[in-house]
Each structure stands twice: as C-alpha cells, then as structure tokens.
Amino acid sequence: MKSIVYCRGDSKDARELEGEIRPYLTGKGVEVVTVTSMDDLSTLPSGAADGSFILSLGGDGTFLRAARLSTQLGMPVLGINLGSLGFLTDVEENEVYASLDAVLAHTYAVEHRLVLEARIVREGQEILNTTAINEILVVRDLTGKILTFEVFIGGVRAGQITADGIMVCTPSGSTGYSLSAGGPILDPTVEALVLTALAPHNFTSRPLVISAGSEITLKVKPSRDKAAFMRDGEHIGDIHSFDTVCVKRHPQDVAIIRLREKNFYKVLGAKFHWGG
C-alpha cells in the first residue's frame, strides 16, 4: 500500500503533522511519499497499488490541489482540515489517527465528484490543457477593460456576453467563488455545470445551469488587454484576443474518501448558515 501526503511546504502546522503521520504509516507497512508542490511529481510512485490513497493536510485550497492529483493518479483522497472553513475536507486534526486506521482497514466510502477539463486554443494550436475541481475562470486584469465573449454550448451559439469575466464551475465549486458571484448552489450529486458572468454589462446575463455532458466554448473578442486564465483560484496563464477556451467534464471524476455519512444540506447549514 502507498500513500501520498500532500501539504504546503510553507505551512508549519502541516509539516509538523506530516512529520508525525509518516512514521505512523510506515510502521504499518505503508510506503509514504510527501509532496509539497505540483513540481514534486517526479518523486511519486510509479503505480497505485490496491488500497493506495492521498492525504491532504491543510485547508480547502490544499485539498483542491490534492484532488487534481487524485484524478491524475486514480487514487482516492482524504482531506485533513488545518484551515478555517473546511467545507471540502472530512477530518479534523483531533481525528487523524482514528481516521488513518479506518482507511487502512478499508472501512470507508468513496464519493465521486465531477472534474472540469479546460483547453486554451490560440491560432489553431492548443497551448494549455488543465483540470479543475471547482472552477475555470477567464477574467480581465485589474487595470484592463471589460471583456466580450461569444458563448457556445454543445456547439450551438448561445449568445454574446460583455462582462469582467466568465466562470464555469462544478457542483463542488458552486459553494465557492461562483456563489459569491451570484450563482446557484448545486447538490454535489447533480450532473451539471454552472456558467456565470462576472459583473455583466447586461442584466439579463444570468447564471446558467448546463448539462455536464455539454462542452462550453468561449471565444474572446478583440481587446487591447490580456485577460487572466484561472483554475481553482490560481492564475496559470493569460488569454489573448481571439483565443478560444473550451471547458467540459473530464472523463475521470475525483474520488473523495468519506469516513462517515456527510449530509450536504447539514454541512451547508453548519458552514454557510444557509436558512439560518
């Protein structure tokens, strides 16, 4: 059995916990590899054995990066919360060792959540291909002008939107940035995506709930300014005039380890005070 422990290298709490977890797992015959950055992927084991898993030590941001790693390797991920909100993570710090024992005993359930795949195409060439757990965002620079997009859904032109940006999110991401931008909250079991315009010029450009089987294509109209391309809150590239951004469901869902029944609506009330 193998375990990949993912934590931020600049987090003192996470590194201390990793230092405690490592000997605990190795003492039970688990091969442990620690990753503190996506640049460390060359250190990963060559293949996932039965029962292998990823541990995320940190907050929801760390969990999102670990979850993307999960889709790459086909290994389930368990989130140990060292952050403030912990909406995505399942285990609190005082539950760590009991939770590890449960994982080693295979007494857990797996929850599957859909993942986004996004591509940037420039002058007919794909220049970037990435995945996201929460959202893909194309947004103007702070000093840039408002953007105009042609929007296609399932190959059909849906319209033109002028806005600060456009976001495509998963049900998992519907409680994140999309919610702050006025998007709806989706039950994580719903097979759908949400398209949300940020500060749209036209008040009729309301969020759309779209079948998860549809590909969303955004064609960026001419502008003197570049735009930022963001994945799960990280700026990973720039968008130029006439670029095309294609977003669809990735074929590999993320597998999240659940050690107890986690009712989405109870968590929504506890963490977000919905209906309170």
TrEMBL record:
Assigned EC number: 2.7.1.23
Record: residues binding NAD(+): D60, G61, R65, N134, E135, K145, D164, T175, G176, Y177, S178, L179, S180, A199
GO MF term (any one): NAD binding
Cellular location(s): Cytoplasm
Catalysed reactions, semicolon-separated: NAD(+) + ATP = ADP + NADP(+) + H(+)
Active site: residue positions: D60 (proton acceptor)
GO CC annotation terms, alphabetical: cytoplasm
Superkingdom of origin: Bacteria
Keyword NADP assigned: yes
Biological processes per GO annotation: NAD+ metabolic process; NADP+ biosynthetic process
Keyword terms of this UniProt record: ATP-binding, Cytoplasm, Kinase, NAD, NADP, Nucleotide-binding, Transferase
Location (main, coarse): cytoplasm
InterPro entries: ATP-NAD_kinase_N (IPR017438), ATP-NAD_kinase_PpnK-typ_C (IPR017437), NAD/diacylglycerol_kinase_sf (IPR016064), NADK (IPR002504)
Cofactor: a divalent metal cation
Family the UniProt entry places it in: Belongs to the NAD kinase family.
Function noted in UniProt: Involved in the regulation of the intracellular balance of NAD and NADP, and is a key enzyme in the biosynthesis of NADP. Catalyzes specifically the phosphorylation on 2'-hydroxyl of the adenosine moiety of NAD to yield NADP.
Family annotation (PANTHER family): NAD KINASE
Protein name, entry field: NAD kinase
Organism from which the protein derives: Candidatus Cryosericum terrychapinii
